[in-house]
Amino acid sequence: MGAAARSWLRDLSSLYTPTATQFGGAAAHRASIRARLDTVFRVRQMFDIGSLRHGAGVRRYSDADYLTCWSNI
User: How many alpha carbons lie under 13 Å from residue 27 in its C-beta half-sphere?
Assistant: First the structure.
């Protein structure tokens, strides 16, 4: 593949890749979700799952997905 094509693909993908601000926002959102769940449940673990976590998120369309394990003991 030529340099021009690689450059074009890189520029195109940058339009759809979530920004560092979006990743930071997802981290803050995760913390607020965990804090809220901890008031009712004793959260044991919380995992980031889905496209944003795996680097396949699409800017303005993808959201953060979480899986939570808790203990009611």
Answer: 6
